[in-house]
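Task: sequence in, structure out. Protein: ATP-dependent zinc protease.
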Amino acid sequence: MKPNTSRRVERHALVAHGFQIIGWRERVALPELGVDLIRAKIDTGALTSALHVEDLAYFERNGRRWVRFHPPGPDGRPLAKPAEARLRDSREVRSSSGQVERRCVIATPFVIGAEMFRAEVTLTDRTDMVYNMLVGRSAMRIGKLIVDPTRSWMAGSPRLEPQASESP
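Result:
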């Protein structure tokens, strides 16, 4: 069997088991946060996903801690309308440069291609980074994502419309 044929068979087997093959960078939507499109780096070196936010503020609602912030829009500038999410946790995270930072953790739906899944994301300042979002290993596991590091933008634009099987 030729190497290319073997890779094709392997890809078909992964897809048949519900996995989505994606590139090292993809377009992602975070619908609960009002983010219809963000370009993200798929980072197998990061456990938890990270999202660039501005104007992060804590508040309480019904006795629970929440956060309010401005996530980036498709052009990278902060969205005019702030997003709100229940604070799930606060964790120390070591950046790729070795710095330890305490970050807010929220859980929110991710949409990559036609797949939607809920995963944790930390909120941080990624001003100097090329991508406003990193998708980490825990989200990849939950979303059943397999990375092809030789490809980009494989999933296409996030499709937010409900699939036929999801309609009532």
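The domain at 20-155 is CATH 2.40.70.10 (Cathepsin D, subunit A; domain 1).
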